[in-house]
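Field notebook, page 385. I keep forgetting to write these up properly, so this time I am using the form the group agreed on. The chain and the ligand, zinc ion, are recorded exactly as supplied. Prediction of the bound pose follows.
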Amino acid sequence: MSGEQLTVLEGLDYKSGNPVRVTISEGKIREVAPVQEEADGSLPWIAPGLVDLQINGYFGIDFNTLPLTTEAVQEVTRRIAKLGVTSYYPTVITNSPEDIERLVGIIAEACDSDPLTGQCIAGIHVEGPFISPEDGARGAHSKEYVTAPDWELFQRWQRAAGGRIRILTLSPEWDNAPEFIAKCSAEGVTVSIGHTSATPEQIRAAVAAGARMSTHLGNGAQLMLPRHPNYIWEQLASDELSPCAIADGFHLPESVLKVFLKAKAEQLMIVSDAVFLSGLAPGEYDTHIGGKVVLTPEGRLHTAHNPNILAGSAQMLPFNIEHLVRSKLCTAAQAWEMASTRPAAFMGLPAAQGLNEGAPADLVLYNWEEDKLMVREVYKNGSLI
Ligand SMILES: [Zn+2]
């Protein structure tokens, strides 16, 4: 035997800014050691891989539309890995029970038939159909399929998914929600509150039953709310809830992001919530459910008939990090953490160990060009993507 294969990378530690040499073997970080910076200052930044808790699709491939092939899921995995996303939760939204079952089954099969996909998909996020039937709160989810929490149904999907459903977004406004949430929690499924018009009491009952996350807080909400109390204040005030936010600059005003950061500090996480049109060129597109939509050169996605109405997010995590940094809401290191080690820690993934000895070698090398984040190289479990 010639001994173990070593990969050595040099870069600036994303947190400290100090030049480091990262030694990788057998998929793990073996050592992170300080080095002298090269005189020409050419070292890229080096950081743990990004972790996205909510992605609906990419590059024209939609996790929510049949037919979906295992190859398509694998293609999304490779494409977003190149953007630095080394762990993610494909998100299947409100649909007919049969279609949800099929879709999660195909995603599970994609994991089983391709090692990289199996490693990158940390779990499946099912968003709905146990959400609010109310307009505004329901967002773009089809009212036809919105229904009260149903344990039998959920078990059916979980079987089809081979136990891979790790996050479930629901609204606790249904009478049986606390009981259902307690069952999910007992099985290790993270229950997230979203697309809700629940009362503060119902939110508190959900938290008491085990809900621990808020899905895209501040979005998927009614346009008009009582000033207080309301479900946004209640979730912000709940110490047990770790919220996710879409920080693309289009979904939430900077003042709201700032308040979320202050109120939730180390608990706030960033998700892309990207739809299948993400990664495509600006232009007008036809969507099967939402009609015509427009993706602007700035990266904003809106309905064609009314530019004021967003049609989902079209950006991946690096774009969200850029926005947080550009708007000076936090440091680049903090923004990166909110999109990598923090969601990893929240979901109990080994990637939570970050840029440290023993961590999985999920690594991103990148440069900042002005305020653009340019990804150079990405490693998943030590293998170059
Ligand atoms: Zn949503």
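OBSERVATIONS:
- Residues 127, 139, 194-195, 216, 220 surround zinc ion (CB under 6 Å).
- The radius of gyration is 20 Å.
FOLLOW-UP: compare against the apo run.
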